[in-house]
Amino acid sequence: MVPKWTEAFIDVIKQVTGETKFTYVTAVTVLRGDRSLWEDHERFRRALGGNPLKLLTMMEILAEVLPRLMHNSRVIFSRSYAPTSESVRLSKARIAVSAKRIVRFTPSTTYRGKTDWARVRAMTDEEIEAAARSDPDAQLTDAEFWKGAKLVMPERKQLVTLRLDKEVLEWFKAQGRSYQSRMNAVLRSYMQAHRKAG
Length: 198
Description:
The chain is mostly helical.
């Protein structure tokens, strides 16, 4: 028996992507035991219409996502955001596309989008705003939207000597370039969590 929520989830994915094959990726704080016991569990597979389940731990997410976020970020706007159940549903549907539709880019990859920039440059501000208002996916912002935003300039890092367990250092280095930035991000996250708690 397929649960009602997965039937609805699969329907939304098909509506948004036109695909019925996808990988359901979910985040877990800590993964105990053998990951394959969860990812290959017959009942989960059946509930997802035979599609695979993939678990990501917080450390894997940090190792994968943080370098991409930090790669070109010079100025960061922060604003509190409370997602609605609809936005979460659509986000999950957009993320869960089949592997054959995923395109990966590296810093050396050149990509030319489909945007006709000459036409955009020729448009007036009023025409651009009208086009944005007619787009159902656009979320126009006004002064109220940016009211709680604050400009955050990156601070210079302090050079320190730090003694780490060999295993910890090797693991971070194995995650690729910018391992020190990832270590800093993990420490910052820990600090912020304990500041809020204390």
